[in-house]
Amino acid sequence: MRLLRLAKIITVSLRFGLDRMILDADASGRLGRIWHRVFFWRRFSEPRAVRLRKALESLGPIFVKFGQMLSTRRDLLPPDLADELALLQDRVPPFPTEQALAVLEGFYGRPVDAVFRDFERTPVASASVAQVHFARLPDGTEVAVKILRPGIERVIAHDLALMEVGAMLLDKAWPEGRRLKPREVVAEFSKYLRDELDLMREAANCSQLRRNFKDSPLLLVPEVYWDWCGRSVMVMERMHGVPISQTAAVTAQGTDLKALSRAGVEIFFTQVFRDGFFHADMHPGNIFVHADGRYIALDFGIMGTLNEVDKNYLAQNFLAFFKRDYKRVAMAHIEAGWVPAKTRVDEFEAAIRTVCEPIFDKPLKDISFGKTLLRLFQTARRFEMEVQPQLVLLQKTLLNIEGLGRQLDPELDLWKTAKPFLERWMNEQMGWRALVRGIKEEAPAWAGTLPQLPRLVHHNLVESSHHHVVHQAALASLAVTQRRQGRLLALLVIAAAALVALELHRLLG
């Protein structure tokens, strides 16, 4: 099977001229000229990026997902390829209902109709890894049942093995191979794909995001019904809403599109700076709008996390950028440890200024946060910055949010919407607010430690006194030993002198 799959990959690559993308990197051009003579009949009118996208679509859903992941690595890919790969859609025909029922019955150990009051045989959504059916729990609760595609692990294993071989060949044979890090990219994709195969992990992500936005006036997240969940099955609350891409229907239900776009920005920055845990797959297919105007988030297979260093880095970069404080931007990179400490701040500052200053000729509403962050990453790579995976996910999500927000409101000023949030967050990280918050966070630990302090102080003093006595006794013993050794040495010197005197008397007398 693997040989047949490899043959198909080679055939598709030749059909869409992917070999030319590699040969064009040969500076001498000799190999390319020979290759063109061999395949003289081929003519390609479409750009290379379109041909690459169509080739990945022909190779199937795993390669489509690989292309989607590659589109986020704008630090490695040329812009034309990254932009075109971002258009890839993870749409595949649903697998037969009989297979879905077999997966459920194998997991629950009984017929589906004995588990659910109702189970809709026709799926409502289908993707490369799983598909979704609507159902009702025994108590009548409406739910969405996500079922892992049967045999998908074997398909993924085969395709990943071929990708790893291809990555190794690219690394060795293609001049650009080392810069693009194909083996590292395939390893990153492998981890990301295997995480998606565990629906318990997705359920945990969903539950965490729901807890973060409990009672939120902006975002709805479905409840997870854990008693019905497993590695291959996820059961969650069914959400009712209109896909956000259907703007006419969203408007018809009475939702203010401008308010909706501003709410999307606030949700994003809340996830990033308040929680450090954000939905990293925010394309329109995963977002619905409730009748009351709140967003509905779906599909939690890909989530991003940020620690305090990441959040400080981002906030300082955004604020410093819009104040044109390029030295602060440079220092933020160095302080975060993402460029070497030996980096000359003035040179790094000049490089950042070259990238950012032209942007300020545009109105703020026309400035792209995502593209600005990307330019900073690309500039920083010249100064040996290793791109952080969590920031790659963040940049991808930020581009999605920007595109979505400006689709709802073309006049959206992302900076005006985000600036108050960023400034408030920065104020909370410094000064008396940060002190109060730190005291509140540490108070529970102090409550357990404070009653023990007198005993701990007494114990420490006793131990210190004991150690002092032992130390003094050791010093006294050492002094006695030194005196004894001194007397013995003096006796030895006197004896030696006496022997020398006797010997001299014998020789001279």
From TrEMBL:
<keyword id="KW-0808">Transferase</keyword>
<comment type="similarity">
    <text>Belongs to the ABC1 family. UbiB subfamily.</text>
</comment>
<keyword id="KW-1003">Cell membrane</keyword>
<keyword id="KW-0831">Ubiquinone biosynthesis</keyword>
<keyword id="KW-0997">Cell inner membrane</keyword>
<dbReference type="GO" id="GO:0005886">
    <property type="term" value="C:plasma membrane"/>
</dbReference>
<comment type="function">
    <text>Is probably a protein kinase regulator of UbiI activity which is involved in aerobic coenzyme Q (ubiquinone) biosynthesis.</text>
</comment>
<keyword id="KW-0830">Ubiquinone</keyword>
<dbReference type="InterPro" id="IPR050154">
    <property type="entry name" value="UbiB_kinase"/>
</dbReference>
<keyword id="KW-0812">Transmembrane</keyword>
<dbReference type="InterPro" id="IPR004147">
    <property type="entry name" value="ABC1_dom"/>
</dbReference>
<comment type="similarity">
    <text>Belongs to the protein kinase superfamily. ADCK protein kinase family.</text>
</comment>
<dbReference type="InterPro" id="IPR010232">
    <property type="entry name" value="UbiB"/>
</dbReference>
<keyword id="KW-1133">Transmembrane helix</keyword>
<keyword id="KW-0547">Nucleotide-binding</keyword>
<comment type="pathway">
    <text>Cofactor biosynthesis; ubiquinone biosynthesis [regulation].</text>
</comment>
<dbReference type="GO" id="GO:0005524">
    <property type="term" value="F:ATP binding"/>
</dbReference>
<feature type="binding site">
    <location>
        <begin position="124"/>
        <end position="132"/>
    </location>
    <ligand>
        <name>ATP</name>
    </ligand>
</feature>
<keyword id="KW-0418">Kinase</keyword>
<keyword id="KW-0472">Membrane</keyword>
<protein>
    <recommendedName>
        <fullName>Probable protein kinase UbiB</fullName>
        <ecNumber>2.7.-.-</ecNumber>
    </recommendedName>
</protein>
<dbReference type="Pfam" id="PF03109">
    <property type="entry name" value="ABC1"/>
</dbReference>
<feature type="binding site">
    <location>
        <position position="146"/>
    </location>
    <ligand>
        <name>ATP</name>
    </ligand>
</feature>
<dbReference type="GO" id="GO:0004672">
    <property type="term" value="F:protein kinase activity"/>
</dbReference>
<dbReference type="GO" id="GO:0006744">
    <property type="term" value="P:ubiquinone biosynthetic process"/>
</dbReference>
<feature type="domain" description="ABC1 atypical kinase-like">
    <location>
        <begin position="88"/>
        <end position="331"/>
    </location>
</feature>
<keyword id="KW-0067">ATP-binding</keyword>
<feature type="active site" description="Proton acceptor">
    <location>
        <position position="281"/>
    </location>
</feature>
<dbReference type="GO" id="GO:0010795">
    <property type="term" value="P:regulation of ubiquinone biosynthetic process"/>
</dbReference>
<dbReference type="InterPro" id="IPR045308">
    <property type="entry name" value="UbiB_bact"/>
</dbReference>
<dbReference type="InterPro" id="IPR011009">
    <property type="entry name" value="Kinase-like_dom_sf"/>
</dbReference>
